[in-house]
Amino acid sequence: MAAPAAEGAGAHVVLVGLPGVGKSTVGRAAAERARLPFIDFDEEIERREGRSVARIFAELGEPHFRAAERALTAELRAAPPAVLAPGGGWIENADAVRLLRPPARLVYLRASTATVLRRLGAGRAERPLLSGPDPAAAIERLFERRRPAYESADVTLDTEILGIEKLIDAVVQLVTVRGAGYVTG
Ligand code: S3P
Fold first, then answer.
1. Looking at ligand 1, which residue's alpha carbon is closest to its atom 10?
2. Between 20 and 30 A from 114 (CA), which of 10, 20, 42, 137?
3. pLDDT score, position 175
4. Distance (Å) of CA 38 to CA 85, 103, 132, 141
5. Domains, the chain, ordered by start
6. What is the pLDDT of residues 42-61, one digit of tens each?
7. 129 CB under 6 A from ligand 1?
């Protein structure tokens, strides 16, 4: 397997954060603008498995989905630089994160649990971990567990402060320039 690229520009940028925070929307637009490949993990896993994430969870179980996420991560380790949008739970697999970082940089798209639930709306039905009777409690639990890992990202973009264009611009900057910190404007 080829050695991973040096840290900084030229490495993957991985968008992390809760479901519904906008990883796919921001990532797709930023990659297009930067003329880089974009990989939406859920979409790629759905394509490979020939069924939706909801059906993978229901029919094959969450461990199967997590193994598919890890396998895809391992494949991307030596791939040319891209914008990656794994599902919100990928961050909990420290081993998968270590496969990419360094040199990849993680960008945390932040929003409160109330905001992501509102943004998800009907899309909640497609998220097996949030489709139960008490989605508010479910997202709180996920966030509590994942928060330290999300906050360990190299850069935080606050999606409640930055509008979509600024979020896209910030990610485009990150794929071309090395940077870290908390971007608010
Ligand atoms: C999950 C988030 C989903 C999807 C799966 C599990 C999670 O992706 O991978 O339903 O554990 O938070 P999004 O973050 O794109 O919704």
1. 127
2. 42
3. 87
4. 8, 17, 31, 29
5. 13-183 (3.40.50.300)
6. 999 999 999 999 999 999 99
7. yes
CA of 155 to the centre of ligand 1 (A): 20
The one-letter amino acid code at 51 reads R
- DSSP structure class, residue 56: I
Q: Pick the residue whose CA is nearest to atom 4 on ligand 1.
A: 87
CA 151 to chain centre: 13
Q: What is the pTM of this model?
A: 0.91
Q: How far apart are CA 56 and CA 73, in angstroms?
A: 18
The closest alpha carbon to 102, from 154, 41, 26, belongs to 154
Burial of 99 (C-beta count, 10 Å sphere; 0-12/13-18/19+)? middle
Give the pLDDT band of residue 124 (cuts 50, 70, 90): confident
Residues 53 and 42 sit within 8 Å (Cβ to Cβ) = yes
Task: List phi, psi (to 5°) of 110.
Answer: -100, 140
Q: How many helices (H) and strands (E) does the chain have?
A: 8, 6
Pick the closest to residue 82 from 9, 2, 156, 13 (CA basis): 13
| Those residues with Cβ within 8 angstroms of residue 28's Cβ, 6 or more apart along the chain or in another chain | 38, 40, 83, 85
pLDDT digits (tens, 9 = 90+) for 145-170: 999 999 999 999 999 999 999 999 99
